[in-house]
Write a structure and sequence with these properties.
By secondary structure, the chain is mainly α. Helix content is about 85%, strand content about 0%. Helix 1 runs antiparallel to helix 2. It is rod-shaped. Keywords: Membrane, Transmembrane, Transmembrane helix.
Length: about 60
């Protein structure tokens, strides 16, 4: 697995954990929700950019 994919997955998971924590716990700052959402969106943005950049890699492998 590529290091970029590991980073993207980690960002998505950390953001999800922050959101779940902020929803389930009492008296949590709303900034946890905002930060969690921003981290998830950053991870998804990076992941989709990686997928778009590597979408035609399988065609190059078949030609070789």
């Amino acid at each position: 697995m590529n290091n970029s994919q590991v980073l993207n997955t980690t960002l998505i998971l950390v953001g999800g954990v922050l959101l779940i924590y902020s929803i389930s716990a009492d008296d949590v700052s709303p900034y946890f929700k905002i930060i969690g959402l921003v981290i998830i969106m950053l991870g998804l943005y990076r992941a989709t950019n990686y997928w778009v950049a590597t979408k035609d890699d399988h065609k190059d492998e078949n030609e070789k």
